[in-house]
Specification:
The complex is a heterodimer of chains A (159) and B (177). Chain A is mainly beta and 159 residues long. Helix content of chain A is 14%, strand content 44%. Classes of the chains: A mainly beta (159), B alpha+beta (177).
């Protein structure tokens, strides 16, 4: 391997959701933790289940499996705590995953225009082609609220 | 040799809060925001019915001199299962009397954490933030978040319409007599 190709390798965390594997850039990951109690309270943001307490911080839990797999996870083994950007601010968000995660180094191929918005790129690992996720498009934030605000709606609050 | 100055015990700022329940769900409100706590029964005599289109959470209003207090059903506001409220919090600097199930206890919070930015809908108006108390997380309500300016305008319009109807009815009765 030459020095020039080595420089292009980036670190990714491979995560498992159901039967599928996805990747997230390692610099977006804070830690992997065992599931803990979820505190739920009324709100109207879809996809958010509640919050967990982690080292004194209150971290929202967001299940992204429904968007990626079309169904919710039946079992969850860990929460992958990722760093999500909101403009200039960054906050932790906990993503439930079904299996152990793996840190790998790989070269990422940029996403094509035809790819879904949640695809930041692609990488090849162990014979699989794996989507690198863009968490900013998968998890709720003010930009989603603005997009959803167009038709007024009155949904029941999520428990 | 210079010795490190002793660390003074820091007196963390605390805020007195009231923990209360609506449909079994725990919430907190700053004690300073609560002007009165009344039983729902004690207010029922003074309350009159009101109906504003699309605003089911307010069914009654209480007149206090020139001021009208709108009774907001907490369960309906938060989209929880409807429950018979037993107590009313008259919220300071608002026109809201909040119907709740009951008071859990009074306590103090030392830290109010901003609502995470992932929460991006109406809850940002509902809550000042979240606080961790005895290994649980409680949302701290924003007193002015129960009725938006648009909702207050709707209620005022409904109120003036009902006043107008009442005065017309009175005139009709008088002329009939």
């Amino acid at each position: 391997m030459t020095v020039s190709t080595e420089l292009e390798l980036q670190s990714f965390v491979l995560l498992r959701l159901g039967e599928r594997r996805f990747a997230i850039s390692a610099n977006q990951i804070a830690e992997l933790v065992a599931p803990s109690r979820i505190f739920r309270f009324p709100h109207r943001t879809p996809k958010l289940e509640g919050v967990i307490l982690r080292r004194g911080r209150i971290v929202p839990v967001c299940d992204i499996s429904e968007m990626l797999l079309g169904k919710r996870l039946t079992s969850r083994r860990f929460y992958l705590i990722a760093v999500r950007s909101y403009g200039t601010q960054k906050e932790w968000i906990a993503v439930p995953v079904t299996g152990e995660c793996e840190l790998i180094k790989s070269e990422m191929m940029a996403a094509a225009e035809s790819d879904a918005p949640h695809v930041a790129g692609w990488l090849s690992h162990g014979g699989d082609v794996i989507e690198v996720l863009n968490l900013d498009t998968l998890t709720p934030g003010a930009e989603h609220a603005l997009a959803e605000a167009a038709p007024p709606r009155r949904a029941e609050a999520l428990p | 040799m210079r010795l490190a100055s002793p660390v003074k015990p820091s007196s963390a700022k605390t805020e007195q809060i009231i923990l209360f329940r609506v449909s079994g769900q725990l919430f907190a409100v700053s004690s300073a925001s609560v002007q009165e706590v009344r039983s729902a029964d004690s207010m029922s005599g003074a309350a009159t019915q009101i109906s504003a289109p699309g605003l089911r959470k307010v069914r009654h209003v209480v007149r206090r001199g020139d001021r009208s207090l709108f009774i907001v059903n907490g369960a309906m506001h938060f989209g929880l299962h409807a429950a018979e409220g037993a107590l009313l919090f008259v919220l300071r600097k608002t026109r809201t009397a909040l119907l709740i199930d009951g008071i859990e206890k009074m306590t103090a919070m030392t830290r109010l954490q901003a609502l995470p930015l992932s929460f991006c809908h109406e809850e940002r108006q509902w809550y000042r933030g979240l606080t961790a108390l005895e290994q649980t997380v409680v949302p701290v309500v924003r007193p002015e978040g129960f009725l938006s300016p648009e909702e207050l305008a709707l209620l005022d319009a409904a109120l003036s319409q009902s006043d107008k109807t009442a005065s017309e009815d009175l005139e009709e009765t008088n002329s009939a007599q």
